[in-house]
Design goal:
The chain is an alpha/beta fold. The chain has two helices and eight strands. The protein has a four-stranded mixed beta sheet with strand order 1-4-3-2, covered by helices on one side. It has a four-stranded mixed beta sheet with strand order 5-8-7-6. A hairpin with a 6-residue loop joins strand 3 (37-41) and strand 4 (48-52).
Length: 124
């Protein structure tokens, strides 16, 4: 259903490094890039996440209530993504754990303050 998500950045080179290392944990790599954007995906026809310098030339800002959810596949990968985000300079927004109804997630912000989570569905 979702083709791709874009996140504005004011720290392009640092954000590129952040997402290169973070998204490698779930097997994503750069699939497209130019001097104004980079997109990562796990395959040619899979959903992508990208960073970009805003087209209008103004500073990127964080959307209130906007969040990108990364499908991690297992609690171990949720934990790894959350830990890597913090290690790379991201901010903790909620430690990994069960959120009820078989939903396991950890929440964090990237270097520009964009909110993300890593999640998976569990059997119990």
């Amino acid at each position: 259903m979702i083709g791709y998500v874009t996140l504005g950045t004011n720290r392009y080179d640092e954000a590129a490094k952040f997402y290169d290392e973070l998204l490698a944990i779930i097997g994503a790599s750069r699939m497209m890039e130019s001097d104004t954007f980079i997109a990562w995906a796990t395959g040619a026809n899979s959903p992508a996440i990208s960073i970009l310098r805003p087209y209008d030339g103004k500073d990127a800002t964080v959307g209130n209530g906007v969040m990108v959810a990364l499908a991690a596949g297992s609690p171990d990968r949720v934990n790894a993504l959350h830990a890597k985000a913090i290690e790379l300079g991201g901010a903790d927004e909620g430690a990994p754990g069960s959120r009820g109804n078989n939903f396991y997630a950890g929440y964090f912000r990237d270097l520009d303050g964009n909110k993300l989570n890593a999640f998976c569905m569990t059997k119990d």
